[in-house]
Design a protein that fits this description.
The complex is a heterodimer of chains A (204) and B (383). Chain A is of the alpha+beta class and 204 residues long. Chain A has a single domain, classed as Peroxisomal Thiolase, Chain A, domain 1, CATH 3.40.47.10. Helices cover 35% and strands 25% of the residues of chain A. In chain A, strands 1, 2, 3, 4, 5, 6, 7 and 8 form an eight-stranded mixed β-sheet that branches. Chain B is an alpha/beta fold. Chain B folds into two domains: 218 residues, Peroxisomal Thiolase, Chain A, domain 1; 151 residues, Peroxisomal Thiolase, Chain A, domain 1, CATH 3.40.47.10. Helices cover 30% and strands 20% of the residues of chain B. In chain B, helix 4 links the parallel strand 4 and strand 5. The longest helix of chain B is centred in the N-terminal third of the chain and has 17 residues. The two termini of chain B are 22 Å apart. Classes of the chains: A alpha+beta (204), B alpha/beta (383). At the A-B interface, helix 3, helix 5, strand 5 and helix 6 of A face helix 4, strand 5, helix 5, helix 6 and helix 7 of B.
Chain lengths: 204, 383
């Protein structure tokens, strides 16, 4: 078993700050997520109109992936990067919104465009489409960030050569609070891929 | 690499509360789909396979639990209790628990629910299962749309290979709720009649509910007669659309090819395909393209949606368990609802339940978010 996997880079998004490898790269103390994430989208000169159709969870995961995957891979060579994400609230933010649309018989307006986002793995689909990743993907739910399982699972994908790299981490949106911690694991990188190191970077 | 097996298993469904009973009914081509008239779910009758409330309550009462539980918790508790107790395994720090669900206790968001809204958090559901059975390890919830049930088996196998666990119990379940039915209805995906996967006259899906559970293990000493070995598994995203299947079947084709590569078997060694077959126009068409690209157009294939409808996060596990029993019984089960091929590429749909010596099967699933999973299983030769 290969014990030499490494963390290549990592990104945090929370409380109005986007940071890459521990350094703030964008700050905007907007009172709400919608205006914060929109300003971050413009700051990073993202050109992707589908972004505006996404729900909050997908916007959050998408922007964290944008920051990490800025160097685009060459189009001839397909990147085999798996995506393994996790959170606490699943898609509950959108679930609640959808539930409101069906709660009142006299004001019943279920929308397919909302319903499709009532699954947490849709944000993985959005990242896969954006970065053309035909790769392994899974979405796990934990009570709190679980470095142990995410490490074991991404190691298994690398060790069995199911993926050359894994984009993994935590992306949670609940009652207006948001937190993303995404990182790339591969055979090379600056940080050892251990439970302790993942936890340390998560808390940075 | 050491082998990993599927062993003790259970299905809680409208066709019965034991895998054997359920498979007996399928072998007689009895469907669990019925016309349901429940205005609290939708304002017109719809076809579904729902677990009878009184039978579920009766089974749950036998567990002698004092606390109040939601419908989904009862389904999962009853199913997992049966699988755990027949396995006789002691729950040590080498035994894991994976819960596969897309929506969990989503019904508690409804204002008519008597449960607190916090119950909708999937980790709440996981903790309740952990605490009741006294698992020593932290449960893992997998919520990856309609591939969850089969992906959960792959995840269990991978964690066993990482030497995290020796055994993993996987339990899967999802409910038929107003939330789900109104959503698929908004997509205009629901059929007005029992669904007809791959048929020219197919007109959409039925949604059903089951709970299912299985023991995934590396220990040959805890196997059952219908046990199978997991030979290969892979998941690949379409990277194409979040709700529509890829026109080229890209993700499914890649998943099947990669799973087969891992088995070192030729595609000609696959005896049977338990496909996804939801009976929507686009899904079934996509599958026919993907299977033909993979050279599997001549392999006997069925969809079990005509017996249960689409059971969402449980479907992959439910259909894998039935596949195990199909191999053990050397029987190809009819793809219920099918009359005449209605996809552009050839598929060998099983039209009548027939006896045939079969050793291997391929299980596939596809879902929202562009997800696809394929897994190959082989029956154990007991000497």
């Amino acid at each position: 078993m290969n014990k030499n996997n490494h963390i290549k880079s990592y990104c945090h998004i929370n409380e109005g700050i986007v940071s890459l490898n521990g350094k703030a790269v964008y700050e905007n103390i907007s009172p709400d997520f919608a205006s914060f994430i929109k300003s971050a989208y413009h700051h990073f000169e993202t050109d992707y109109s589908k972004f505006f159709k996404m729900d909050n969870l997908s916007k959050l995961a998408f922007m964290a992936a944008e920051v990490l995957l800025q160097e685009k891979s060459s189009p001839e060579q397909e990147r085999n990067m798996a995506i393994v994400l996790s959170n606490r609230a699943s898609s509950l933010d959108t679930d609640r919104k959808y539930q409101e649309s069906i709660a009142d018989e006299n004001n019943f307006y279920p929308s397919p465009a909302v319903f499709v986002y009532t699954l947490p793995n849709i944000c993985i689909g959005e990242i896969s489409i954006r970065h053309k990743l035909h790769s392994e993907n899974s979405f796990f739910i934990f009570d709190a960030f679980n470095a142990d399982y995410i490490k074991e699972y991404s190691d298994s994908l690398l060790d069995t050569e199911k993926a050359d790299e894994v984009l993994c981490g935590w992306v949670d949106f609940d009652e207006g609070r948001y937190e993303a911690f995404l990182y790339i694991v591969s055979h090379q990188g600056s940080h050892l891929h251990t439970k302790e190191e993942i936890t340390r970077l998560y808390l940075t | 690499m050491n082998s990993t097996y599927l062993s003790h298993n259970n299905i809680i469904s409208s066709l019965g509360f034991e895998s054997e009973t359920v498979v007996d009914k399928i072998s007689k081509e009895i469907s669990g789909l019925q016309l349901v008239d429940d205005p609290k779910i939708v304002d017109r009758p719809f076809y579904s396979s729902m677990i009878p409330a009184d039978a579920l309550q009766e089974a749950f009462t036998k567990l002698d639990i004092q606390e109040r539980h939601t419908r989904l918790e009862k389904m999962m508790l009853v199913s997992l209790d049966k699988t755990l107790s027949t396995s006789g395994l002691e729950l040590t720090d080498r035994v894991g628990l994976i819960i596969s669900t897309t929506k969990g206790n989503i019904d508690v968001l409804d204002s008519e629910s008597s449960f607190p809204k916090e119950r909708a958090y999937l980790s709440e559901l996981a903790q309740r299962l952990k605490n009741h059975f006294r698992f020593k390890t932290e449960p893992l919830v997998l919520s990856n749309a309609c591939v969850s049930g089969i992906l959960a088996i792959a995840v269990a196998k991978r964690l066993i290979h990482q030497d995290k666990f020796d055994h993993v119990f996987v339990v899967a379940g999802d409910l038929v709720t107003k939330f789900i039915i109104s959503g698929f209805n908004a997509f205009q995906a629901l059929s007005e009649e029992p669904c007809r996967p791959y048929c020219k006259t197919r007109s959409g899906i039925n949604i059903g509910e089951v709970a299912a559970s299985v023991l995934v293990t590396k220990d040959k000493n805890v196997l059952v007669p219908e046990s199978v070995e997991i030979l290969g598994e892979a998941s690949c995203n379409d990277a194409n659309h979040i709700s529509g299947p890829s026109r080229t079947g890209e993700g499914l084709y890649r998943s099947v090819t990669k799973a087969l590569e891992q088995t070192r078997l030729s595609h000609k060694n696959i005896d049977y395909i338990s496909a996804h077959g939801t009976a929507t126009m686009f899904n079934d068409e996509m599958e026919s393209i993907a299977f033909n690209r993979a050279g599997l157009g001549e392999i006997p294939l069925n969809s079990l949606k005509g017996y249960f409808g689409h059971t969402l996060g449980a479907s992959g596990l439910l259909e894998t368990i039935i596949g195990m029993h199909a191999l053990h019984r050397n029987t190809l089960f009819a793809s219920k609802g099918f009359r005449e091929l209605g996809v552009s590429e050839p598929l060998k749909i099983i039209q009548q339940t027939t006896s045939k010596e079969i050793h291997t099967f391929l299980k596939t699933a596809s879902g929202f978010g562009g997800s696809n999973t394929a897994a190959v299983f082989r029956k154990i030769q007991f000497i």
